[in-house]
Amino acid sequence: MNIKLKSVREDSVVLSPKEKLLQHFWVFIAGVVLGSFAKYADTVPSNVIPGLSDIFSYLGLYIFLVTLLAAWSHSPKTAAINSLLFLLALVETYYLYSFLLYGFIAIKHFMFWNFIAFISPIPAFILWYSRGKGLLADLCAAFPIGFLLNEGFSFFMFFHFTLFSSDLTY
């Protein structure tokens, strides 16, 4: 199996332990920043910046970011670690911000998104091979592309009907 996976894509760059740690640190910081901004976007009234809350509460955005993070990592193991760190930082910061702002946490949602973050290394490991060559690489890339096309279509239709519809009555 290892030989088959190496024929799809091989590790291209060997990083020192210090460089790996620094990379993981910046991925974690990016998750903290995005988690803070996502919660901030939820608290901004929709008439201040139209669509800001909609964009940052959109699942397709985070699927896209984690897919890019996994595909452009240096190895499948790094892709798995980076996706876990990014999503955990994002979820924990989002709910910590909620707790500080409102004084409570929706435990079911918190547990669900933590579960998603903890299983994210598996698809991230697989997605790393999507930048390789052959049918297996194409299949690895097809899943996030298909999901994003489905999400993107519904996102486009949402904005089309809410922003450009002239038959809305108030």
TrEMBL record:
InterPro entries: DUF6518. The chain crosses the membrane at residues 21-40, 55-72, 84-105, 111-129, 141-164. Keywords: Membrane, Transmembrane, Transmembrane helix. The keyword Membrane applies. It holds the Pfam family DUF6518. This is Transporter. It comes from Tepidibacillus decaturensis. The lineage of its organism: Bacteria, Bacillati, Bacillota, Bacilli, Bacillales.
